[in-house]
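User: Quick one: structure for sequence A, then sequence B.

Assistant: Sequence A:
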Amino acid sequence: MSTLTEIAKDKLLYEGKAKRVYATTNPTLIIQEFKDDATAFNAEKRGKIAGKGIINNELSSFFFAYLTDFGIPTHFVSKISEREMLCKKLEIIKIEVVMRNIVAGSLAKRYGLKEGDELRHPVTEFYLKNDALGDPMLNDDHASALSLATYEELEKLRQLASKINAILQELFWQKRLKLVDFKLEFGRYTSPEGKVEILLGDEISPDTCRLWDADTNEKLDKDRFRFDLGNVEQAYQEVRRRVLG
């Protein structure tokens, strides 16, 4: 692998709702740039959250490094600027993995449950990564029949997500935050030697996690933007303050 000083940003590969992804002069690496743009309800609602990209880059960099120490394989290589991180290039698996610990969001609506109730045990859900279709829920048979992932890969996703949940729940609780639920994305990384490995990708931030104050249940995540609760920037800053000090 090239040294970091030899790696330069190349063409824009993809621009999503919250990030831009650039090629680099190393074909196995990309640069992920975090934007301040915010979307909700499959991009039907749009806006900006001042400083969000900087905060999410800082938090994601921290969480990826933290998870690596626990043996979780991630795409993260290094934080290279206030809005950019260097990452291994993945073939993204078109499945969003959602871990739920407390009833909120679509789980409450779908089953008529009370928001805030703790689940007897964490729940793992798979969704097709497709905004145009509203990210419909999948089971293992759907995912296999649609050639999104093999059964073995799905079990790997489930195991990794469960371990990540346990690690982050404990970390957030130490920071007086409840990890209500969160979304993970994974991808296949092909090393220069040709070895294929599943790595955690995307980001871990108040954009992708529901985080509530441990004492008051105050929402400190993107739900403040979704539901016009106000103090959106302050919520992101508070998560950053608690996690990073």
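Sequence B:
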Amino acid sequence: MLTLKDYSVSYGESEVISDLNFHVKPKEIVVIVGRNGMGKTTLLKSIVGVINSKKGEIKLQDNLLSNMKSYRRIEAGLGFVPQGRMIFPMMTVKENIETGLSSTKNKQISDEIYSLFPVLFDMRNRRGGNLSGGQQQQLAIARALASDPELLLLDEPTEGIQPSIIKDLAKTLRIIRDQLNLSIVVSEQVLSFALAVADRVVVLEKGKIVLDQPVDEVDENKIAQYLSV
């Protein structure tokens, strides 16, 4: 579904992602974990085209994304939920989700999106800024799903969310994967969430992959060591 080959990203002279080789299979949930500053957010932003890559190749199925603008990558099948959610606080829930339709031919929000997030249907006429942190995260995901992605990218989705809601979020992402046949890539620091949602766990350390394993083969203590300061 997604392939990165010899992929590097730099900020000026500082290389943040170095010669990365990475893939995501169809209907696979991959969680990228690592401490702050290890390159997780940079990697996701570069995949969606917010940050330019320095070198290497990126493909979504057979589509070469490397030279595409960000909006073209969304049209090609990427969905992105940024860190901090970035919803439009003064717009209604319905209007927020409708902004995701702009890259599609759809004119209306699908019933399937509201079935995944029934609270958003109940609050569809409420301003996004009046929702709780967990509800805003659901809204950001729903907006991304409105663009009909084949691969969904989520950057630190548990940030600012209560622990009880985090468990529900892991369950919801698996339901989204199964119902919509999506591949999902998540960057995350909360290990319990990563292990609950992932099919595969990747550890990023200083812009390089230092561990890549199916979740049922993961040594939790070993990953925890990478995440410790």
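The chain has a mean pLDDT of 91. The domain at 2-227 is CATH 3.40.50.300 (Rossmann fold).

User: Thanks, that's what I needed.
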